[in-house]
């Protein structure tokens, strides 16, 4: 058996778990780079029986899966992966195994981005490194309005931190009710009010047909010119071209982004260079505990599948 571990950017997958239950029965190859071209990806994966993917870094749609007749199993980190065509995998007889996870790291990064954006920490740190001193006047969060778009597993835990900072926390989503918002300790508002009144608007929705492109030119135009948009969810929830335009024209004050339409973010993309953008490379879940859960459970999922294959063959 041959196992491919994809997109291990930091080259840490084999250190985060004991892979010996798999290594005893399979040859493991770790890839630290990312292939976006479908033909290159198919060529790379053609010899492998098992592919371990890190979240949605490498999508596996039908047109890829149908070109990989050798592939028998996909081990996907996290409890679900929207970038894998599950119907196609079932049709082609490919078993898909998933793992547990942890949302704490994403919640922590959300607040790291909010605080860093409000106090211009990157610019001030760079000034010190370059021999300078104070260059900006920060924004105090106390008394400001925190808008939470999506009050699910992550949003519901982001919200009370805003309250602890003395912020007025409001929330809206398509499924949220006033009763659920009150139970979470936040104020339910209309969609229009969320965009019009938030000083910091943070996105915590799953990417779906309903949420894709939910924030476009009209929503960005409705926001305060002093507002900051924070996205640690999924890039396509925000129409990227509209966001770039709003940032270039100072329609909103800034954005703190961990997710993008195309990842890795292309070299030369304006979101890499705009001075009112704080960008991080989709590191919401890139932390020690989530990685240990991801890779430990990946080993268990592959090992269990190998056991079943051995039983079938005996």
TrEMBL record:
<dbReference type="InterPro" id="IPR029752">
    <property type="entry name" value="D-isomer_DH_CS1"/>
</dbReference>
<dbReference type="InterPro" id="IPR050857">
    <property type="entry name" value="D-2-hydroxyacid_DH"/>
</dbReference>
<dbReference type="InterPro" id="IPR036291">
    <property type="entry name" value="NAD(P)-bd_dom_sf"/>
</dbReference>
<keyword id="KW-0560">Oxidoreductase</keyword>
<keyword id="KW-0520">NAD</keyword>
<comment type="similarity">
    <text>Belongs to the D-isomer specific 2-hydroxyacid dehydrogenase family.</text>
</comment>
<dbReference type="Pfam" id="PF02826">
    <property type="entry name" value="2-Hacid_dh_C"/>
</dbReference>
<dbReference type="InterPro" id="IPR006140">
    <property type="entry name" value="D-isomer_DH_NAD-bd"/>
</dbReference>
<feature type="domain" description="D-isomer specific 2-hydroxyacid dehydrogenase NAD-binding">
    <location>
        <begin position="112"/>
        <end position="284"/>
    </location>
</feature>
<protein>
    <submittedName>
        <fullName>D-2-hydroxyacid dehydrogenase family protein</fullName>
    </submittedName>
</protein>
């Amino acid at each position: 058996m041959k196992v491919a571990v994809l997109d291990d950017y930091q080259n840490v997958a084999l250190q985060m778990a004991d892979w010996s239950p798999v290594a005893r029965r399979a040859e493991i190859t770790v890839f630290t780079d990312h292939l976006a071209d479908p033909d290159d990806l198919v060529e790379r994966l053609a010899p492998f029986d098992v592919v371990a993917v890190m979240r949605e870094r490498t999508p596996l749609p039908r047109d890829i899966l149908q070109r990989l007749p050798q592939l028998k199993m996909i081990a996907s980190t996290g409890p679900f992966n929207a970038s894998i065509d599950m119907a196609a995998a079932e049709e082609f007889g490919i078993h898909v195994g998933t793992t547990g996870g942890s949302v704490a790291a994403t919640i922590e990064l959300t607040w790291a981005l909010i605080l860093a954006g409000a106090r211009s920490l990157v610019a001030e740190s760079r000034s010190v490194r370059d021999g300078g001193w104070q260059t900006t006047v920060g924004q105090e969060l106390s008394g400001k309005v925190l808008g939470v778009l999506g009050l699910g597993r992550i949003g519901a835990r982001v919200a009370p931190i805003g309250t602890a900072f003395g912020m007025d926390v409001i929330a809206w989503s398509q499924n949220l009710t006033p009763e659920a918002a009150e139970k979470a300790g936040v104020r339910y508002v209309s969609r229009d009010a969320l965009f019009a009144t938030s000083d910091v608007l943070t996105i915590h929705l799953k990417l779906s047909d309903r949420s894709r492109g939910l924030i476009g030119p009209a929503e960005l135009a409705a926001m305060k010119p002093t507002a900051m948009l924070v996205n640690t969810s999924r890039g396509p929830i925000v129409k990227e071209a509209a966001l770039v335009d709003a940032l270039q024209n100072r329609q909103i004050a800034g954005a703190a982004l961990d997710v993008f339409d195309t990842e890795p973010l292309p070299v030369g993309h304006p979101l890499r260079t705009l001075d009112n953008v704080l960008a991080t490379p989709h590191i919401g879940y890139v932390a020690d505990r989530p990685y240990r859960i991801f890779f430990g459970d990946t080993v268990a999922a592959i090992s269990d599948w190998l056991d079943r294959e051995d039983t079938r063959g005996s």
